[in-house]
Amino acid sequence: MPISNETRQTVAELDRKYEAGFITDIETDLAPKGLNEDIIRLISSKKGEPEWMLEQRLKAYRHWLTMPEPQWAKLRIPAIDYQDAYYYAAPKNIDRPKSLDEVDPKLLETYKKLGIPLREQEMLAGVAVDAVFDSVSVVTTFREKLHSAGVIFCSISEAVKEYPELIKKYMGSVVPYTDNKHACLNAAVFTDGTFVYIPEGVRCPMELSTYFRINEAKTGQFERTLIVAEKGSYVSYLEGCTAPKRDENQMHAAVVELIAMDDAEIKYSTVQNWYPGDEEGRGGIYNFVTKRGICKGKRSKISWTQVETGSAITWKYPSCILLGDDSVGEFYSVAITNNHQQADTGTKMIHIGKNTKSRIVSKGISAGKSDNTYRGLVRISGKAEKARNYTQCDSLLIGHTCGAHTVPYIENRSPSATLEHEATTSKVSEDQLFYCRSRGIPDEEALTLIVNGFCREVLQHLPMEFAVEAQKLVAISLEGSVG
Amino acid sequence: MAQAAVHSFKTETLQREEAMPWLAPAAVLGGDNAPAWIAALRETGAASFAATGLPTPAWEGWQYTNLRPLTPEAFTFDAAGDVAAQDLPAPLLKDSHRIVLVNGRLRPDLGTPLPDGVKLTPLMEISEPEEELATVGSLAQSPLLALNCAYMRDGFVLDIAPHRDIARPIEILFMSAGNSPAVYPRVLYRFGENSGATLLERHAGEGMALTNLYAGIVLKAAARGRYYRFIDENGDAVHVSRTVARSHKSSDFQGFSSVSGVAAGRQEFGLELLDSGISSSIGGVYMLKGRQSHDFTILADHFEKDGTSVQHFKGVIDDQARAVFQGKIHVHRPAQKTDGYQSHHALLLSDQAEASAKPELEIYADDVKCSHGATAGMLDTDALFYLQSRGIPAAEAKALLVHSFLSETLEKITRDDVRALYAARIAAWLNAPVEEAAA
Is B376 within 8 Å of A412 when comparing Cβ atoms? Predict the structure, then answer.
């Protein structure tokens, strides 16, 4: 064993902290528990949606009833009682505030604890935040500045009303409601999310960001993100997630769709820090997310970067369909599991166009009694001449009660394609720790140092604002795992 | 990935109906007075298969190999058919011992006497089986094994006595003969403590045939087992097999298989490293063309510490052929200081060839070194150009490059004469396309 018993004991005494684990006491507008057609009608009417949207929701719901739960992931998922959850929760007393000053101060306090300095951000030329508190997008900053550039950045419910043509055209075009059970549920009950539209030739003047947060007990969060990048445009989108500490499990079934036209580039970064449950594995978020992008145009590019540190169960495969010739898909992932967390995450790269390229770099870190699986598909169709894929999956095990798994699926029908796959599994070596210790660096810190080094390749793909946060999260997630 | 999601239960009754024609011919086994344990296994196997039917691409592990085109009516169980001694293929190696089976039935008249220290017992003569013979694991997950159990009759146990080193290799020749036979042999190769032997298992025959083999290999402490398989059947045969090598303390196992002839095939290998200090390796080459399909599915299971396992596979795929490699290294919690290595490299020679790979790792111990590499691609055009610029015709240059690509897998084979046998098969396969190109 790499670490002495003594250290193990010291560390066991440390209580694992979940810094975002507070509950905000705000009056919430709740729909009755359970899921049926009436609830869906209620959600739709609460949001003042047009008839066609309601019809789509009902169609999805009826299909959802016939769909089996996905079973193939290496996860132990307790049976989910879909009737024992709220599908709509909105903070009361807010009629779409015009500026931050109108926002409930308690809400702002919450965000402050989370470390999104909304107010500061308004001053500093930085990140525009579409903050989602439970299901309703509370405030959108930097709206005007973006508007002058022609960029649409608004909540999806607004978009349904204001840009119905765009929504009709693109929503569900990448992830159809028939895709899988979780995505189908989302299509039926999604309550909010973000819509981004970058017009032709526009380079989005700032990084866009949404902070999601589940607050109300027993609420599922079903947000939907849709990003359309027209010809020659560029956008970088940041997504962060946290949830309060609760004993029961909460479900999060989101859908993200990205569409990139000719020469467009979308960079999508996620730092996921949902509540992972306590040391005994009680509570925590079930994170069942369907994320998919399509490189529709020639020379388009979609890049996913994710740092997954939270959630009791993660089921998530951000994917790229490389349809346009010379398009590029990238996936950079760090997944950290500790205690009883389970993660089954990875990507799918579907090469259809000629000269398409994809790159997958996945770093899995398991500690405690957790299980961490990389599951990825690389499919090269017969038409994808000279397609290239490079995949690298590295796993790091900390302690001997966790598991690390790699399940890549590689399908090649194009002889001129080149596919490379590499995977390694290792542990934090006693030598590395000893070296740090001899330089006076305590074990916990040394571990963070080593793990950050292990993840560097991925972390460096994050935008600056997130890279710092991600490094801190790595440290928090691994607290108490030495030994 | 997504296609695996539908583990559909609604078709189960349908599958059951489909399963019955596969099981019906087993009725001829009815009055054969099989030992009780065999009768019991037949029943268990039949019941399990009736519930599952053949696996479909919706099953995890079966996404890439579709057995649906396989129909029970195309094959005859207990088919008549014989091979005369002079029609048998020449022995693989001149100085080897030989065991011959025709359509699964042992034929001592066609074989050679076995040396001291080697004992052959037909399955049906065993009344009190050891545990390793009578247990089969989970059948629901392996319908083909269940089917093999349902037809249990043909096969044998081959025992290598403890502390004996059998110098000359033993060839086990499975011949198919007659009208589309279906054979379900079950064999157990048992290497006694500190014994050593080289087995050459060869499958040959003309015309259509279905082989569904279960081969158990047991290596007692410090045993050294060499197991080389040659699938020399021709273009119409279907070969499915499961081979499980159970290794005990400090034993050493090396297996290898080559396949080029069958219409469709799936070879599953299980390496079970049950104790510490074990070395176990499996390798293979495949050469496919036309509409052939073949699947290597490997599981290396490390249960105890200080084990080393190696999986090393390479293949070429031409025309519309399809190749599958699914490999997995499973390191259980106590298996610290494990070295696991896995590689698969496929060469696609045509636009319509297809290669699928699933190189998996499942690891529960922290002090291990496991790696896998998988590549798929076409011949290096630069190398091809270089050879051509030196006056080597394109077809020959291509063959040369493929040969060197495949031969690399043979390097670890400890016996020169066995290595030469595999090299000859690679050369023979490569000659065919060269001739076609010339014509």
Answer: yes
CB-count burial class (<10 Å; 0-12, 13-18, 19+) for B315: buried
Query: Which residue bears the tokens 């402490």?
Result: B221
- Are the C-beta atoms of residues B354 and B322 closer than 8 Å to each other? yes
Nearest to B242 by CA among B152, B148, B154: B148
Residue B236 distance to chain A (closest CA, Å): 24
Residue linked to tokens 């502390």: B163
In angstroms, the Cα distances linking A396 to B30, B83, B367 are 55, 57, 10
Q: Under a CB-based contact definition with an 8 Å cutoff, are residues B210 and B238 in contact?
A: yes
User: What is the CB-side half-sphere exposure of residue A463 using CA atoms within 13 A?
Assistant: 21
CB proximity A403 to B under 8 Å: yes
Closest CA to B201 of B225, B226, B172: B172
Instruction: Give the closest-approach CA distance of A202 to chain B in angstroms.
Output: 35
Q: Are A395 and A428 in contact (CB under 8 A)?
A: no
Taking the CA atoms of chain A, what radius of gyration do you get in angstroms? 22
Q: Identify all chain B residues contacting A405, using CB atoms and an 8 Å cutoff.
A: 360-363
Assess contact for A188 and A43: CB atoms under 8 A. Answer: no
Determine how many CB atoms are found less than 10 A away from the CB of residue B395.
15
Which pLDDT score, from 0 to 100, does residue A25 have? 54
* CB-based contact A410 B336, cutoff 8 Å: no
pTM of the model: 0.81
pLDDT digit string, tens, across residues A345-381? 999 999 999 999 999 999 998 888 888 999 999 999 9
Helix B394-407 vs helix B416-438: crossing angle, to nearest 10:
160
Q: Which of B333, B357, B363 sits opposite A410 (nearest CB)?
A: B357
Map residue A142 onto helix, strand or coil.
coil
What DSSP character marks residue B59?
S
User: Whats the size of chain A, residue-wise?
Assistant: 483
Residue with tokens 């037809």: B151
* A95 vs B312: which has the higher pLDDT: B312
Mean pLDDT of all residues in A280-294: 86
pLDDT digits (tens, 9 = 90+) for B248-284: 999 999 999 999 989 999 999 999 999 999 999 999 9
Q: Cβ–Cβ of A411/B371 closer than 8 Å?
A: no
Q: Give the one of B5, B366, B369 whose C-beta lies nearest to A70's C-beta.
A: B5
Which of B8, B349, B366, B382 should we substitute to test contact with A (largest number of A Cβ atoms within 10 Å)?
B366
Which residues of chain B lie closer than 8 angstroms to A407, CB-CB?
Answer: 358, 360
Q: In this structure, are residues A89 and A30 in contact, taking their beta carbons and an 8 Å threshold?
A: yes
Q: Summarize pLDDT for B219-247 with one digit per residue, the tens.
A: 999 999 999 999 998 878 999 999 999 99
C-alpha span between B329 and B344 (Å, rounded)? 13
Mutate to test the interface with B, among A319, A348, A406 (most CBs of B within 10 A): A406
For the purposes of burial, counting CB atoms within 10 Å of the CB of B149, is it exposed (0-12), middle (13-18) or buried (19 or more)? buried
Single-letter code of the amino acid located at B123: L
For chain A, which residues make up each domain, given as ranges? 5-478
Using the Cα atoms of residue A437, residue A441, residue A443 and residue A445 in order, give the sign of their dihedral.
Answer: negative
Ranges of chain B with pLDDT below 70 = 1-15, 432-439
ipTM higher than threshold 0.85? no
* A406: nearest CB among B7, B360, B368: B360
Q: Which amino acid is at A252?
A: H
What CA–CA distance (Å, rounded) separates B59 from B339? 30
- The CA distance from A91 to A94, in Å, is 7
- The CA distance from A23 to A380, in Å, is 47
CA angle B369, B371, B372 (to 5 degrees): 165
Which residue among A382, A406, A426 sits closest to B351, beta carbon to beta carbon?
A382
> pLDDT value at position B251?
97
Which positions in chain B touch A400 (Cβ < 8 Å)? 333, 336, 364-367
